[in-house]
From TrEMBL:
This is DUF4974 domain-containing protein. Residues 279-346 form the Protein FecR C-terminal domain. Gene3D superfamilies: 2.60.120.1440, 3.55.50.30. Pfam families: FecR, FecR_C. It comes from Hymenobacter sublimis. Residues 136-228 form the FecR protein domain.
Amino acid sequence: MELSALHELIGKELAGELSGAEGEVLHAWLAQATAEERLVYEETKRYWHTPAPATVTAADTAAALEQLLTRIDAAEAQPQPRIISWQPTSSAPWWRTRAAAALAALVVAGGAVFSYWSFQRATPETGIPLAFEEKTTARGASAKVLLADGTAVWLNADSHLWFPKSFEGAQREVYLEGEAFFEVTPNKRQPFVIHLGAEQVRVLGTSFNVKAYQEDETMETAVVTGRVAFIRSGAEDATSSDTLYITPDQRAVYSKSTAALRRETINSQDYAAWSRGGFVFQSTSLAEVARTLERHYDVKVQFANEQLRHCRLTGRFRDQTLREVVSVLALTGSFGFELTDDQLLITGPGCEPTSTAPAVAPSL
């Protein structure tokens, strides 16, 4: 089946205009679709039938529709793996069918596109403008993004960055979920603001790392050069008492559960190591080590004993395989492991919550 014809069928179904014959064709496609394609199809229907948030303006809607139509054109240019004979039975649809077809294009245009809309829909309070571009990285991958003002952003694994095509207004604003290292182009008249859900990081020009994964209990930013303001939710501006300023070799750590914000002294180069292909553990809990390995190597880590999460490890690594990293860490005697192609099982009796394991010889 032609991709555009599939969009048309799904669009008609969403708009309530699908004929019986067209329904049979669509059902035939669903019968041979993969589990992932069927899941995305069902989620797209759910999205379509959910009322739009009241904060979306007409301009936002127009910009979003323009993006979707552009994605249709791009998707239509891709070769299709499956062909089902079908002949359209009606002329061009009216605007609602067109909008529904545009949304339906997301079903087959790629998982990353769907993830963007899913995130937008699930967390409208983030206020991410619909016209913003999105860059995503999968587990086991990283990317570099050059913004319109010359700011360079290294995006770590399993992360999302939303940004405009050009920076206008009083501030340069981007949105981050995951981890990124920023080298911000100085501009005293236009501060650079990174939105991390309800919290913000604000700078004029500097280099620093931000870590804000949705599943982590903390958010943190570590400064390499310059000065950074971490602003808690509810603060009116950067001069508020809810703002913490940090300078080189310092990091701000924010607890999502307690809203506590603290400053720590660190070696900032350790926090930039991942952007050069390495990573550093410094008395890091095995639970956090596991999360890093899952993102960096796209592997599922399981614990045979929950006490293992309390063990703490130190080590430096660069351009090494997962087996090499785990083998070196296991030399501490804190744990054993079983490694298959896509799963790492950590074994052993575990540690008390306050224990610290011997440090591993640096290999970075």
